[in-house]
């Protein structure tokens, strides 16, 4: 009787949580280093505690107790710049420079095919690829953002949806005011959705005029929204801006008041020292997209120099039409390797920094660093588990080094967003992968015809 009541009492003393997750290594990112043999207690979508396994077991219990004995647990990866629905155009036009790619292939295809169904099916395909690759949050810029938002809510991933603006009529909107009105109406409708945030997303300095950019600057300040834009992507962008506006694009945006902590500038390849100073002084963030930049021969961003200055840099895949993968493991590795080669310095972007760029820095750029981007009590349980049991990851002296230089997305086994399991032992929980692939094949036939 005494023994029974002792066991019962001590069981009752423990706190019941939704999930108790044990792992060989936990890499919180916010604090440096690796925690060996620790556990995470997850409750109501949030990380409640991270403790050594024995301590976690003495304080918590859960009917959902998961033991990942050979895994590293990291914050979910954050894809800071993408056009999710463009997965349906993966490989339609390769080996071209940006403007030929856009003007001769992508924009004509978009004008013929992009509608709400295309964006729905393409975003589903992207979410399947991203979740299987450990991505828990993406920053999107595309037509028909309502369709992307619907998919995000259906599958349970987290996203920043772009209120896209471009001075080019489309099936989605007739002019820039129509783009803005439609985008803001979607935001108003989704204000209570914890997985959705919104950005103002003017496409690029060459496709949006001064008057519209000023309107966007005012809206960003009024609504405290990030502004997500392609910037300084090619040498031609800068040459044309000098010819048409008398200034380089970044200086033009600065004169219009857009360079601020609200700004997320994708690419930022061709920069003078003065521009780097200015960008740092005014607090902008960068979405570095190394694969897309190389594939379109746009150039190599001076990442080491920008980091040394103290600029916040996250990592993006860009679209599957210019990458051609939505693979943040590949982008992390390339970020680390390119920075070394470009700056002639093997110490540039060590593994821990590449991982931080792919997680916490992305969250910071999106204004989400109080919610996600690292594993700390009080933050959302946006978590990726990476299986280290393969011989190709053996031996392992440092799991952070392996995550960047060895592991690939094929090692991702589990993903949680807001405490909800979305990938279980490599299988998508909320998405029907076979159906998604069938829809992709249907679009492939349409695009060809
Ligand atoms: C108006 S929706 C977004 C728009 O951007 C196009 N796009 C995709 N990748 C890039 C890139 O690297 N630079 C500039 N524009 C890009 C996409 O096709 C859509 O038209
Ligand atoms: Zn882009």
Automatic annotation (TrEMBL):
Its cofactor is Zn(2+). Substrate binds at residues 110, 203, 233, 318. CDD domains: ATZ_TRZ_like. It catalyses: S-adenosyl-L-homocysteine + H2O + H(+) = S-inosyl-L-homocysteine + NH4(+); S-methyl-5'-thioadenosine + H2O + H(+) = S-methyl-5'-thioinosine + NH4(+). Pfam families: Amidohydro_1 (PF01979). Zn(2+) binds at residues 81, 83, 230, 318. Gene3D superfamilies: Metal-dependent hydrolases, Urease, subunit C, domain 1. InterPro entries: Amidohydro-rel, Deaminase_MtaD/DadD, Metal-dep_hydrolase_composite, Metal_Hydrolase, MTA/SAH_deaminase. GO terms for molecular function: 5'-methylthioadenosine deaminase activity; metal ion binding; S-adenosylhomocysteine deaminase activity. Its EC number is 3.5.4.28, 3.5.4.31. Residues 73-421 form the Amidohydrolase-related domain. It comes from the Bacteria. Binds 1 zinc ion per subunit. Keywords: Hydrolase, Metal-binding, Zinc. Belongs to the metallo-dependent hydrolases superfamily. ATZ/TRZ family. Catalyzes the deamination of 5-methylthioadenosine and S-adenosyl-L-homocysteine into 5-methylthioinosine and S-inosyl-L-homocysteine, respectively. Is also able to deaminate adenosine. This is 5-methylthioadenosine/S-adenosylhomocysteine deaminase. The gene is mtaD.
